[in-house]
């Protein structure tokens, strides 16, 4: 995925959220959840965000990125193993009868605005 396009989508999403909530304050913190298997380079995303932020609603805001792990679920031994990169077999028993849960989501977790702020649930962007 292209990090510049993602940063653009994040900024648009923040604008929509604030508009929806009727917020007019300055954004000082944006928190994202980027799954470890999403293929997104977080350093590049930070760079792109800083590049695009000036002149937008998130100018001067801090970008905080959480990177949740994925889970390998094994149908052979029943183990659920947290993984940080894609695996093709169960780390516990080596069976290939596995499925991978999570780790690919891109979520806008929270937006902190100066002044009173209502919290909203995480949203995909
Ligand atoms: Zn197993």
Can you give a write-up of this model?
The protein is an alpha+beta fold and 125 residues long. It has helices at residues 3-21, 42-52, and strands at 27-34, 62-66, 70-74, 80-83, 98-101, 106-113, 123-124. The strands form two sheets. A four-stranded mixed β-sheet has the order 2-1-6-7, covered by helices on one side. Strands 4-3-5 form a three-stranded antiparallel β-sheet, with no helix packed on it. Strand 1 (27-34), helix 2 (42-52) and strand 2 (62-66) form a beta-alpha-beta unit. Helix 1 packs across helix 2 (42-52). The radius of gyration is 17 Å and the shape is elongated. Bound molecules: zinc ion. Residues 74, 76-77, 79, 90, 92-93, 95 line the site of zinc ion.
Write the topology of this structure.
Layout: H1 3-21, E1 27-34, H2 42-52, E2 62-66, E3 70-74, E4 80-83, E5 98-101, E6 106-113, E7 123-124
Parallel strand pairs: 1-2
Antiparallel strand pairs: 1-6, 3-4, 3-5, 6-7
Helix pairs in contact: 1-2
Bound molecules: zinc ion.
Residues 74, 76-77, 79, 90, 92-93, 95 line the site of zinc ion.
Question: Within the CATH hierarchy, at the fold level, what is the topology of the largest domain?
Answer: hypothetical protein PF0899 fold
Give the terminus-to-terminus CA distance.
13 Å
Strand residue percentage: 25-35%
Number of domains: 2
* Counted beta strands: 7
Class from helix and strand fractions: alpha+beta
Name the poorly predicted regions.
none
- Please work out how many helical segments DSSP would assign: 2
Morphology call: elongated
Largest sheet: 4 strands, mixed
Helix-strand topology string: HEHEEEEEE
CATH class bucket of the largest domain: Alpha Beta
Strand order in the sheet with the most strands? 2-1-6-7
